[in-house]
Description:
It contains nine helices and twelve strands. By secondary structure, the chain is an alpha+beta fold. The chain has one domain (17-295): PPM-type phosphatase domain (Phosphatase 2c, domain 1, 4-Layer Sandwich), CATH 3.60.40. Strands 1, 3, 4, 5, 6, 7 and 10 form a seven-stranded antiparallel β-sheet that branches. The protein has a five-stranded antiparallel β-sheet with strand order 2-12-11-8-9.
Amino acid sequence: MIRACVAAHNLAIPGPHAATTLASHEARRHHPGVVAARGTGAGRRRRIGRCNKGFRNQGRHLRMIEFGHHSHVGLRREHNEDTYYADAELGLWLVADGMGGHEHGEVASALARDTLIDEVRKGTPLARAIQLADEEIIRHSSRKAEALPMGTTVVAVHVKGDEFEMSWVGDSRVYLWNGELKQLSQDHSYVQELIEQGAITPEQARTHPHRNVVTQALGVTDPQSLRVETVKGALKPGSQILLCSDGLTEEVEDSQIAAALARTDISAQECVDHLILAALDGGGSDNVTVILIRKR
């Protein structure tokens, strides 16, 4: 049972891809279609990035996708162990929240991200790609002399045409908006188990002293015991999918998230920015990463 968090700064993305990595600003100038972000701050850890408004030369389905993204280090953390990837062309969006300290959490979340990107490009099913990421992080960790754990949560959405598939491990979340907010993922966490047992209410879980303990994480959970869960559905015009690390849900109520997604007068990126600011206004206790996908 474990926990993690992250943060960073706003970066604009000119092309259909966006990723938070450990790359330098120099590297970003040479790869204008990819955005890299690192965060600085202090507290429990999680991450951030910026927006895209559709790509009119990428085919009908790509034209109909708008997305925004951002990762912030928060107000209490010195490093951002979150990472994310946003690629409308590949149809892949993901958030990974690393844990294990600066030199471990960032590596674990980056390994998860890179493995998923490579495997999805090969046509590997999303759940299997996550299992392979778990194995890769464990292999990498076993080669290091330190005994510190190296783990990460992950939540990923793969869109093909009018259908989507999402898979997750840990407590990073996916929400679906179709006129009302619905949480698609279910946290792999100690407090979620208490809720299911009827021991506490969801309201009590928000302030429980062990609310940041996760029961499943890549690189920490044995591959034989890893529970990768998957949900599939239709992505209808007007639908929105929100991916986030727990730096958002720790500080922002679902009702506030719903109110932001209900707004039709702001872009996907502006909506993401509002949610990030709400998390910081709420205390910014962790890194916070948000991706919002809209189907036009």
